[in-house]
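hi! just following up on the protien thing from before. the input was this:
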Amino acid sequence: MIRTVTAEKAEISYCLERKSVKNLNLRIKSDGSVYVSIPRHITNEKADEFVKSHMDFILKHRMRIANKQSKDLRQLFLGRKIEREVREGEKAYAQLSGNVLTICLPYSASELSESEREKLIKEATVCWEKKTGKELFPEFLDKAYKRFQGAGYAIPYPKISVKSMSSRWGSCTPARERISLSCALIQKPPSCIEYVICHELAHFVQQNHSAKFYAVLDRIMPEHREMKRLLNNS
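and the predicted 3d structure came back as:
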């Protein structure tokens, strides 16, 4: 029998079984599902109260399962591997502290499937990458722009927008003096971020991928081919 109880923090569905046992027993399987066995004379309502009284234990155990399942998923920040911790709370957010990216999901996420939880985790991670990119990418733009200044190229100082991109690391619109960068770049080594920005700024000089364009890159960043390989392989 499947029953559902609602408490302040979450809604829990569990499988209830009556057995020849003396006590009420609760166990959580490896997929996070909850099983409760009770003596035959105990009412369903008492079983519900029993589950409610163990709500914190159930949520914490499910979170340990989720963390274990996501342990092997690679998370990078500026080219270095960081740890990822998933927890539940009042609201969803992602925050980096030291070497740990904490991703907080709402309490209701405990009732979701693994794929649905991973979707929420990805959404929270992308939001964090966008926010962090907006904070850090201007520093790399300054470094890249100074390369062009030092080489005598008079190009406008562009505005940066940070987006979620599925097929490219960056794009530019020279006429609007703007470059767009993928938020996923925050995972890459600093030299790769600067390379992508240099690539986009080079389009302010040559708006194609001709030999003249690569001549600009060769002058601005002689190591750009090595940086491109690192970008695609890191």
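Residues 43 and 187 are 54 Å apart (CA to CA).
Residues 2-61 form one domain.
cheers
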